[in-house]
UniProtKB/TrEMBL annotation:
Name of the protein in question: Uncharacterized protein
Organism: Nonlabens marinus S1-08
Length: 43
């Protein structure tokens, strides 16, 4: 499991999105997760 915390510009508590990677995940779902991170969080 790894967590990705997006930088906040307000005084609100940081929002952390956790992505759970299990043995059941396959290469396709991992690729889709990475693509989602790139599109939504600009990494």
């Amino acid at each position: 499991m790894f967590a990705y915390a997006e930088a906040q510009t307000t005084t609100a508590a940081p929002q952390a999105t956790e992505y759970l990677i299990t043995a059941q995940d396959n290469r396709t779902s991992l690729f889709e997760m990475i693509q989602s991170l790139k599109e939504n969080h600009g990494i």
